[in-house]
Amino acid sequence: MFDDSSDSSPEKQERNLNWTPAEVPQMAAAKRRLPSGKEPGLINLCANVPPVPGGILPPDGRGGLLGAGPSLQSSERPDMAAAWSPAVRTLRNITNSADVPQMGRPANVAHILHSLSAPTKSLEQQASHGQQGHAGAGALLFGQAKGTPEPHPSPQPPQHPVLHLPQQQIMQIPQPPPHPFPQQPPPPHPFPQAQPHPFSQPRPQQLQPLQQQQALQQQLHQLQQQQLAQLQQQQLQRLHQQQQQQQQLQAHSAQHLSQTPQALQHQAPPPPPLPQPPLPPQPLFGHDPAVEIPEEGFLLGCVFAIADYPEQMSDKQLLATWKRIIQAHGGAVDPTFSSRCTHLLCESQVSGAFAQALRERKRCVTAHWLNSVLKRKQLLPPHRALHFPVAFPPGGRPCAQHIISVTGFVDGDRDDLKLMAYLAGAKYTGYLCRSNTVLICREPAGLKYEKAKEWRIPCVNAQWLGDILLGHLEALRQVQCSRYTTFNLPDPFAPTPHLVLNLLDAWRVPLKVSPELLMGLRPPPRLKQSEGTSVQPCSKRARIEDIPPPTKKLAPELTPLVLFTGFEPAQVQQYIKKLYILGGDVAESVPKCTHLIASKVTRTVKFLTAVSVVKHIVTPEWLDESFRCQKFIDEQSYLLRDAEAEVLFSFSLEESLKRAHVSPLFKAKYFYITPGICPSLSTMKAIVECAGGKVLSKPPSFRKLLEHKQNKSLSEIVLISCENDLHLCREYFARGIDVHNAEFVLTGVLTQTLDYESYKFN
């Protein structure tokens, strides 16, 4: 198993293990959640989503169609295309044209000229060749005619073999059909018709069948001659027409070459250019380029309607947060989609709102696009596959059978691939093992890439996953296609143009902003430096900055060691100044912490690790009141109480602290945690160790698990995994060993209880 993922790196202590904003408590098992944004002022994309625990015609048939000549080839080409095109899907299913063989390609011009060089000679050779052979076929025809009561042949002429010629022989004269008699005079017959033999007079009953045979032979011969003459005349007419067309083509080519003399320098024609994806006919716009939009109001003129996301949010306050952020940057949010809206914020292309927005040429984008423009503070057109709604319904899982790993991508790019894998229904692992089905590479290098080649795991670029999200489901069967095995792309996340042409249509028209909106957004003029000093600052800031650094120091056993969680950095700085003035200090780590200051219960790393070790969890009012009194006061009146969170998780924070002080929750317990766990393995290890447990570095064997389970004197071993790592637990499941999800640890530490039933994988 090889892991180059950054998931195991030490995480920020403020990371919310609920995958929601730190100030909003969440259900332990939400319906759908996504990982929270790390930058202030961005919408939380994944707060509501938990980590993702037609065939071508055969050559024979194609040759038969092409052998019918130019007229048949042109008339039946649509039918040929319909024969091999895949069935029409509800989702867009566009076959990669680069990997489909070209059908019905016209013959080379030089071959046509060669075929037309001597039509008369070719015709004579074909006719003479047809008169010399096939005696056996003639005998067969004779036998059939002899046994037929009616001597006249069928009036319908047989189909000529020219219809079955391959492509390279279309322009040649085909052989005439075989006939039983040659054109030379027949040899003397033992029973001539003119005079009977003088010595042996045949009987009438013997002459009659012979005369019938001769008459039938003459009729067949005449018929074959007529058919041959008609066929030769048709072929001559066809060759004459093609010769005229070729002369016109040569005249046109000569005229073209005379206009471009430099082309004559090349003996061979240049190779045809490689097929290029169609480019948008017009440039894409955000706002009108002629209007200067202030950076703080870059969403000015944008009216959003939000679809798909509200149904997936377990926390309805999150939607209000999105609206507030949009409005803070000049945009507006309507409760329902209407003609007033300019943007539809949606996850899927399969909805009535999306269809209406597309008809009305509205801009359809995702929450990921909104986060990207919030970072840049500029209204940019969508330029990544994640910026467009997926081409299948919400909850669709086209990649449900895939276990995806990535290599060469870091930071935001790796996070984007995780989100893309989640939206496609695939499992994501930061490591690579033999159970992985696809490795997404930025470049063909690295240990993961080498092992994937050794284990015969397909290696593709990021465009493979992007095309699947945008509806090209044929990519699921095209992992070996050259399009997806080309690496070191300038922008591997750029969407395939022909998959998003209809979605980019609305971005070809600039967004107009009225002068009234611009005037309403003008920020107040900045104060000059002299004016700024005359403004009276708040009293709290005045007291902190005016008070000199403290000179008193408390005894080590009386010095509070404090940590903060759930606050903005500016607030933390103010609290730390007060703490220093009172003689306290900031704890170096959670195990050394004595006081945790929080405004509400949050499932951050600090909070969940501190529950097991701190003496007090208090509100900021304790520090404010201590600062007012210029000494640390008793904590009992300022203990944190969060009725909403305690009802939500069915626990009492005060009781949890008491139980943790009596005995650590995970004392004398070993944990094996699979590497793809979310939150990260390092975070889970910190929480477990603060609660008294130990984490094993290697998976325990079945014999060891059974030994520890039967011998009560040995420590218990608990297995923790996630949906993406269940393939690593197949042996445990097969032997009936329980495996739990991360909530066994997270919720267990918060409530200080061991629940072996609620979080067990079935």
Explain the overall architecture.
Among the domains are: 284-388 and 496-514, BRCT domain (Rossmann fold, 3-Layer(aba) Sandwich), CATH 3.40.50.10190; 392-494, Rossmann fold; 556-661, Rossmann fold; 665-751, BRCT domain (Rossmann fold). Strand 11 (561-564), helix 18 (569-582) and strand 12 form a beta-alpha-beta unit. With 762 residues, it is an alpha/beta fold. Strands 3-2-4-5 form a four-stranded parallel beta sheet, sandwiched between helices. The protein contains 26 helices and 17 strands. Residues 7-13, 18-40, 46-207, 256-268 and 524-548 have low confidence and may be disordered. The chain starts with a strand and ends in an 11-residue tail after the last helix. The longest helix has 56 residues, at 204-259.
Radius of gyration: 42 Å
CATH C-level label of one domain: Alpha Beta
CATH topology of one domain: Rossmann fold
Which structural class do you get from the secondary structure elements? alpha/beta
Number of strands: 17
Unreliable spans: 7-13, 18-40, 46-207, 256-268, 524-548
Beta-strand proportion? 5-15%
Shape: extended
Helix content: 25-40%
**Average pLDDT score:** 73
**Mind summarizing the main beta sheet?**
4 strands, parallel
From the N-terminal CA to the C-terminal CA, the straight-line distance is: 25 Å
For the biggest β-sheet, the strand order reads 3-2-4-5
- What's the architecture of one domain, going by CATH? 3-Layer(aba) Sandwich
